[in-house]
Amino acid sequence: MYRYLRTLSSFSPAGRARRNRNTQSRRFASSASRGKVVVAMSGGVDSALSAYLLQKEGYDVSGLYMRNWSEHEEGYCSGQDDMESIDKVAKHLKIPWSVVDFQREYWNDVFEPSLEEFTSGATPNPDVLCNREIKFKRMAEYIFQHFKGTDYIATGHYARLRPNPKSGSVELLRAVDEGKDQTYFLVQVNQQVLQKTLFPVGGMMKSAVKKMAADVGLPNATRKESMGICFVGKRKFDKFLGEYLDTSKPGQFVDVDTGAAVGTHRGIPFYTIGQAASIAGKAVKYFVVSKDLQTNVIKVANSPGHPALSSTSLVTESFHWISGPREEIFTPTGLRCIFRIRHRGPLKECTVFAVDSNPAKLTVKFDSPTQAVTPGQYVALYDGEVCLGGGSILSSTPLQ
């Protein structure tokens, strides 16, 4: 059903323009001003302006669109609209663009693992997995193998890169526009790939991106920004999950304070920590506190700020250090840094310790209680503006 069709087709001749703008960090200012770069194009304005900026910088630019989900099977992704948008931009910039099919890889490396996590009671983050397994792994490998002489890949992510002369690595920095920062989704990306990556719009405000796109006449300058996960599309998320997960395991909602059953849930995979439970017939709003696979019980609280939703620490596994682990995690005093547990979540202070001297398994102790720590989601650590990396949340220590 999920046929693997890898195709590459070009639609327009290559173009090249004068260098007149610095689009990345200073690490490129003293290097050769011209090189070959392939831009991962989504059909949106961010990747389109990235292609424009790199072209103006003097790079030989090509575009590449990844087809990760079968629109013909589900009919919900905007793939055809995306490609039409890219074609207009490519013709405007006079650059070639191509299509590559990663449906099989996406299904095996992102979608199925996500379903397994939902089934286990966790709440996965497919966007983090997609960046790690597809965009900055499969796509990068494909580009450097098939686009001979390519120096860099580029994306429209709101993030920045900076060389660290002491370590020889590059550091991942939060975007200038904090409201659009996407480093949370990049916490598991490989260092070697980052060294060959450009984020042209990471140093710009979103408003400036839109204005420049309009000023230079990009055809998609006013295109509406896509939100959410592609394979879900415009459907409600629980309805989508119901097409792939067992919906025959209803159970009880239990009030965390009274121990009384207050309603019936449709199945543990359909709920995540902190979300409104939407219990029929109840005037009081309840929020998910915990999920027990053994008893099939979901405990709920009658306030989003209930102490039962607060945690004092978490344990993360498979933590990926972008530029290598910090030595402080092996000391009794630990590493002082800041963290967030969701995209656009608040940055809060913490202390981090390695578990059993393993830099990939960490205990993150919060300076203050933190709401709705969710297994399966990622914790991202930061030292100021530098993103140190991130890992999947395994468990948390409740406040009460």
What does this structure look like?
The protein is α/β, with parallel strands linked by helices and 400 residues long. It has 8 helices and 17 strands. The chain has helices at 45-57, 71-74, 79-93, 103-119, 126-146, 191-194, 206-215, 237-242; strands at 36-40, 60-67, 97-101, 152-154, 159-164, 169-174, 197-198, 251-255, 261-265, 287-292, 297-301, 310-321, 335-340, 348-355, 358-371, 378-383, 386-398. Strands 12-15-14-13-16-17 form a 6-stranded antiparallel beta barrel. It has a 5-stranded parallel beta sheet with strand order 3-2-1-4-7, with helices on both faces. Strand 14 and strand 15 form a beta hairpin. Helix 1 (45-57) crosses helix 7 (206-215). The longest helix is centred in the middle third of the chain and has 21 residues, at 126-146. The protein is globular and about 65 Å long. The termini are far apart. The model is unreliable at 1-33 (pLDDT under 50).
- pLDDT < 50 runs, ≥5 residues: 1-33
Strand order within the widest sheet? Answer: 12-15-14-13-16-17
Number of helices: 8
Largest sheet: 6 strands, antiparallel, barrel
> How would you describe the oligomerization state of the chains in this entry?
single chain
Query: Roughly how many Å apart are the termini?
Result: 48 Å
SS strand fraction: 25-35%
H/E series: EHEHHEHHEEEHEHHEEEEEEEEEE
Mean pLDDT rating: 88
Task: Label the structural class.
Answer: alpha/beta
- List how many beta strands DSSP finds: 17
Shape: globular
| Secondary structure: helix percent | 10-25%
Radius of gyration: 22 Å
